[in-house]
Amino acid sequence: MCQFCGVDPAFAAFFENTQGVPQDPSVISTQPTPAKPNFFRLKPKLSNMASESKDLKESQLRSFQNSLSQNAQVITETDGKLYTDAIRRWSKCAIKPALAVIKPGTPEDVSKIILLAKSHKVHFTVKCGGHSPGGASSSDGGIVIDLGLMNSVTAKADEKTIIAGGGALWRDVSRVAAEYGLSCVSGSTSHVGVGGLILHGGYGYLAGEYGLAVDNLIAAQIVLADGSIVWASEEENSDLFFGIRGAGSRLGVAIKFVIRAHEQRKSIWGGPLSFPGFQYESIINALNTWYNQKDLKGAAELVLGKGVGGVAGITIMCFYNGTEEEALTNFAPLLQLRPTINATAEMPYWRINTLSEGKDVYTDDNIRFASGNLTPPLDPQHIRKLLDSLDHLYETVPSAAKTGCLTLCIQPDGILKKKRTDMAFCWRDANFDVGIGANWTDPAAESKVIEWQKEFQKLVSTGGDDYRLYGNHEDFRGGAREFGINYLKIIQLKKKYDPENLFRRV
């Protein structure tokens, strides 16, 4: 019996004592954490922990819910549609049958869930947006800590900061920030979770001006493997702060973020320009000309995917953080090519990240990501090879028609403000991030599509750094290739903060 199945008074007393746990999310506490009781006292013997059952029964999970805050939820398969909805994910192939999905309402709830899983030797993972197509936020037979109830977002406009809960999505952050004339560096999709993106890099349209999303993290509240709740910043637990900025999912559960915001004009200019694939040479040459203007306010996403006539085409998703007049001058090299579709316009900043999204956060498609990168200037002939590879896939695997890749072209100035050794995220260079999205609807096509993706990833890398991997696009499978020069330091931090490898392995 663990402390949750028969309530341990010392355990309960610890969580009733909130001294040292900041109640104001913008306050980084320097008070000492109260002494913790022995969370893993077993009744009647301590020495028998290794022989504890790895299984948690339904009755135990229901009993455990009584120890959580009022709004917290424990969801199991017996809950029917509630459970089915709780394990649904953006990518269909990321859906896994969890033993339980537990939605905490407080930091103390998260701590209790970790200790429950640890005492019963049950695997657990953390979900925020559920956007990882490889299933990083899903568990096959374990516990999912779903932070969806901890999704509050507030602004401290006078300090230009945003306070976001661990379950917030970037669309929530963008809209709250916009109310105060602010914006935060985020990805180019609005329905991803704040935590996954910001803790592992975070490329976005504003990165040329302000650096990556992770560069704008001021502090984070973390629940560690031993159940303790701490703040990490440059001033407090600075080694942990180093580690979570790039390897966050390996060291703890981030339940609150303090994010630097920036003054934002009311409208930006942007939208898609679409071209047929046979124009690749003039398009890439024009894109290189645009890039060589070195305007930090401009960004462009080069999208290769199935276009008119069923063959691979090119779309440029334009972004300019300025007036329409300035934008038209900046993007003149591409606009002069007379695209087949020009849907650019002035719009609020938050809207640009929603243009490629459907009405539903989740799809019914099977999707897998892979990471790549390209070194500017882009080679038109290399891009032609990528288009040819996509056409071959479309011809041989009809159900993979939505497969494509996205290359974010931004100036490196903001990214290069940090050194490789300033934080766990090390890729400080001018290379363009490439996300390769394999998408198929026929389950029988999976092996063919994944094999194509591997070969396509190799082909992409011939135009960039074939060692470099971006964790958010590689589903955190990169190991040393994610952390480069910082890999050994991450190993040491892992030994200090998570010696039993409760969280994702490095």
UniProtKB/TrEMBL annotation:
InterPro entries: FAD-bd_PCMH, FAD-bd_PCMH-like_sf, FAD-bd_PCMH_sub1, FAD-bd_PCMH_sub2, FAD-linked_Oxidoreductase, Oxid_FAD_bind_N. Keywords: FAD, Flavoprotein, Oxidoreductase. Its cofactor is FAD. PROSITE patterns: FAD_PCMH. GO terms for molecular function: FAD binding; oxidoreductase activity. Residues 94-264 form the FAD-binding PCMH-type domain. This is FAD-binding PCMH-type domain-containing protein. It comes from Umbelopsis ramanniana AG.
